[in-house]
Automatic annotation (TrEMBL):
Parts of the chain that traverse the membrane: none
Region named Disordered: 315-334
Enzymatic reactions: Hydrolysis of terminal, non-reducing beta-D-glucosyl residues with release of beta-D-glucose
Protein name: Beta-glucosidase
Organism lineage: Bacteria, Bacillati, Actinomycetota, Actinomycetes, Kitasatosporales
PROSITE patterns cross-referenced by the UniProt entry: GLYCOSYL_HYDROL_F1_1, GLYCOSYL_HYDROL_F1_2
GO CC annotations on file: cytosol
Length: 479
């Protein structure tokens, strides 16, 4: 039992609880020029000198495109009941427009068939940051047309897979797409225009609404449509300081309210519109947009790694911005230069992120209140550690085991507290291409030798397999 658990907390999870793992297309597939696939913004970005550690790219990644059958067999060995993966838009629709390339769709058809044959429930994410480069060349997410192109793509994939895939996620972490891609520039496409990033956020919201309608127009009514948000758990450095409370509200609006406001409530927060008025008048929010975005959801995906600690900025303070989102002279927080970020206390992962499982409970309970009656899934949660094989070729990662035990204990506590959490997707199944960090950070429960592509389940994978099989959490030392 974790320190945060109470004697009333049940030992087991609900019988129908999904024990899953998650990945994304560009991080694992490789085969970037096969079967009609064309470059995405991440192909372009990773091939631009200086953008990724070591100049690493996803050209090969972990070669999942060719090894998916073995990877699915590994999932079955680990007792997974669900697998969340993303579809590469430029593999399916190379220009971001027009008819699908059936060879690209066929890969996902085969993957879904393989999963179902092993009794593993597929969960499809339509967009995990890999916009076709041709759409970026036409203006990318700051352009309204991109949202309509996404809806067309959603309909294509929904029609191809909707008869066999019941769980759908429109976008993964639109905050990262908008603000790391268009404000700080640490993610593709690497632009640094804060006003454009706010337009991108709105058009990502619009894409979600239009994509949801497109999916429902081509799929059986039983299918669930959701979105995965990485809403920050924002805490003021001094909870009693009004200036720190204002700073926390500003960052909460920019990380959470900007997306769940229109999606769940049909409106942007007034405090957000006021705080960003120096950058934009929001005139690109057209009549009817908020209604389009405010589509009924069947579920909500929550991604959580670490809390965010902020205060009002000291005008004389200098130094890097400790927000955990990469190094850049440009902030991913538009119109928030008056906010300072602080390292949260406690042990840290290889990403420099503090380990705080209570933040996950806080996030779950927030959305239990924010969207009563809406089922929740933890669609990402995990940690990067410096994993290495020992002399026998085994990979022991007790830190990750402890991380998973702590966070899953908080999920279990939230369920006891009345939250309708129906599943958990560990990030990630495999070590993979970690965006701008290249292959320098390992999030996988399965170790990948990037030279031989050999897969080795780490201690955490074996621990998670036991939890998935029993529906209970083994003590961390029992691996």
């Amino acid at each position: 039992m974790s320190d945060s658990a109470t004697p009333a907390t049940p030992v087991t999870f609900p019988p129908a609880f999904l024990w899953g793992a998650a990945t994304s297309a560009y991080q694992i597939e490789g085969a970037v020029r096969e079967d009609g696939r064309t470059p995405s913004i991440w192909d372009t970005f990773s091939h631009t000198p200086g953008k990724t550690i070591g100049g690493d790219t996803g050209d090969i990644a972990v070669d999942h495109y060719h090894r998916y059958r073995d990877d699915v067999a590994l999932m079955a060995d680990l007792n997974l009941s669900a697998y969340r993966f993303s579809v590469s838009w430029s593999r399916v629709q190379p220009t971001g427009r027009g008819p699908a390339v059936q060879r690209g769709l066929d890969f996902y058809r085969r993957l879904v068939d393989e999963l179902l044959a092993k009794g593993i429930k597929p969960a499809v994410t339509l967009y995990h940051w890999d916009l076709p480069q041709e759409l970026e060349d036409a203006g990318g997410w700051p352009e309204r047309d991109t949202a309509y192109r996404f809806a067309e793509y959603a309909g294509i994939v929904g029609e191809a897979l909707g008869d066999r895939v019941e769980q759908w996620i429109t976008l993964n972490e639109p905050w990262c797409s908008a603000f790391l891609g268009y404000a700080s520039g640490v993610h593709a496409p690497g632009r640094t225009d804060p006003a454009a990033s706010l337009k991108a956020a709105h058009h990502l919201n619009l894409a979600h609404g239009l994509g949801t309608k497109a999916l429902r127009s081509v799929m059986p009514a039983r299918n669930q449509v959701a979105i995965s948000l990485n809403s920050s758990v924002v805490r003021p450095l001094s909870p009693s300081d009004p200036a720190d409370q204002v700073a926390a509200r500003k960052i909460d609006d920019l990380s959470s309210g900007i997306f769940h406001g229109p999606m769940l409530h049909g409106a942007y927060p007034e405090t957000l519109l006021e705080a960003t008025s120096s950058l934009t008048d929001w005139s690109y929010v057209l009549d009817g947009d908020l209604e389009l975005i405010h589509q009924p959801l069947d579920a909500l995906g929550l991604n959580y790694y670490t809390p965010t600690l902020v205060s009002a900025a000291d005008p004389d303070a200098k130094g890097p911005r400790a927000d955990g989102h990469g190094s850049s002279e440009h902030s991913p927080w538009p119109a928030a230069d008056d906010v300072a970020f602080h390292q949260s206390p406690g042990e840290q992962t290889e990403m420099g992120w503090s380990v705080d499982p209570t933040g996950l409970h806080e996030l779950i309970m927030r959305y239990t209140r924010e969207a009563p009656g809406l089922p929740l899934y933890i669609t990402e949660n995990g940690a990067a550690y410096d994993d290495k094989p020992d002399a026998d070729g085994k990979v022991h990662d007790p830190e990750r085991v402890a991380y998973l035990h702590g966070h899953l204990s908080e999920v279990r506590r939230a369920i006891t507290d009345g939250a309708d959490v129906r599943g958990y997707f560990l990030w990630s199944l495999l070590d993979n291409f970690e965006w701008a960090y290249g292959y320098d950070k390992r999030f996988g429960a399965v170790y990948v030798d990037y030279v031989t592509q050999q897969r080795t389940p780490k201690s955490s994978a074996l621990w998670y397999a036991r939890a998935a099989k029993s529906g209970a959490l083994p003590e961390p030392e029992h691996i």
